[in-house]
């Protein structure tokens, strides 16, 4: 007969971001222990609300399965004498195994036949195994932060008030601190908070639902989204912010959607202000126009944890709180518009960016110069706008609105710039220089945002490395990895051809009076940091590991490196590609044995094979360089493949290390010329056949 296991940990309200990771850990832990014990079971289910973390497993047997133990003894040839009588070794083995020698069998192993005793060990009761598993689990659940309360020896996300541990109808004696497991759970704190017995695991969900708790997270999400969507349609509006759903679903146990309204006058505020206040501060769902999907309607959907006697009373409370927030926002917005952005920019002189890197104004001055350097290369006609955008891009950090709502940095700068008559390109760059803020985020839509964003990030990266704030495996407080990847992703997406080495030089030049380390060492470390992050980008784009290793020699231009890697990955399986790899390896192996320098002179060619190789080299050199400079690496690779036959003939017939010094130097110079072409694409010796 099968039984069901239920384990529920009842707590004070757990932060919503803790719940799903904790449940996934519980699912994984229980599944792993059951698999180790070879205990048959149905899929492990998890349930979670702000006040409980629970796991349920159906279809568990009463007992652990029997196990078969094979105990190996001495080799058969050492176990019996010439007459077939057991030796002392065999008798001793039987005695130690607790059996008669007649009960000893044999087992075939890779080393031959050995004595073996096989016994079946009955499985013990499942309840003791499950008790130990649950007892271990409760102290192993990881949380970003944990609390201690009455018993300092235990820690959990929030104080634990009750534990339910049932195997069928049996209570498993699990404890945590002073809390002992029983069968009593609790319903919704405000609607059915009294303890109630759980008869068995199978009725767990229904029991809680009757007491105004929906323990299944996905069911709560469905109820919320359907309720919000239905109300939006009734108002001829739509909801889009599904990212808020995960958070809200884990803030309530019994969701009830209430629709509220705010004054139309607040629609004059930038959409982002309204959305930020509603989503991030009140956890309300904004409602958008059906027509354009971007402008707002003066409605919102809030999710209550109870079903009130009157929605109107609760609605009034939600509306009152939102109005107070929006009144503040309107005041901040109107006051900020009275102050020119230049004034806020100058106030950056009073804001410390980092004690070792100066004020935010000093930082802005540094990266503005780097932005001008980039504009010289990528958009000379935009230099003046790039300088203006860089000067103003951090100004809104001093605004009243951003001081109150930091999430709006850049967004408010753009709004204030537009409303103060600034160039729309400059205003857009003020907002977009922060993009991308994550791997999934959009990129700047305009080159000005790219220029200022790259310049700002490289200043942060070089500055932090320059004063010793280097990321470790567990710490990256300035998000230097993310900022490095953002630069490289912008370069790749837009096809900007710049030298990372020269970009670092420009940044370090501006940081010269702030560095606490040797500039050359900082440059080497930063370049290596860019290289290692680029490896991750190439891996994410499906480039094979050996190709990545081959193209990273001399890494400097990410776009060029990616084009080389992509070209090799695309043709690596072609038959002719093996010719390149083979030819390159033969040349490199010879050059490892010499350090000679020199240039090629046709006057020192003696044999037809070296003349033919040089002629083929000269014939394709110009075309190869042209294709490589254009990024047409597939064509360049095809040209290299044409060197295979003359290279093979050269090595078959020509002695490179000639006794004649001039001839020897000339042949080595020829091979180095060939290597120069190969290395323009990759170190082919790194690529597996």
TrEMBL record:
- Spell out the family assignment given in the record's similarity comment: Belongs to the class-II aminoacyl-tRNA synthetase family.
Q: What is this protein called?
A: glycine--tRNA ligase
Task: Identify the residues that the record assigns to the DALR anticodon binding domain, covering every copy.
Answer: 583-673
In short, the EC number is 6.1.1.14
As its record notes, the protein acts as a catalyst of: tRNA(Gly) + glycine + ATP = glycyl-tRNA(Gly) + AMP + diphosphate
GO molecular function terms noted in the UniProt entry: arginine-tRNA ligase activity; ATP binding; glycine-tRNA ligase activity
Give one Pfam family: tRNA_synt_2f
Which species is the source of this protein?
anaerobic digester metagenome
Primary localization class, coarse:
cytoplasm
Does the record carry Aminoacyl-tRNA synthetase as a key word?
Answer: yes
Subcellular localization(s) per the UniProt record = Cytoplasm
Q: Name one GO cellular component term.
A: cytosol
Keywords from UniProt, A to Z, are: Aminoacyl-tRNA synthetase, ATP-binding, Cytoplasm, Ligase, Nucleotide-binding, Protein biosynthesis
Which SUPFAM superfamilies does UniProt cross-reference here? HD-domain/PDEase-like (SSF109604)
- List the lineage, top down: unclassified sequences, metagenomes, ecological metagenomes
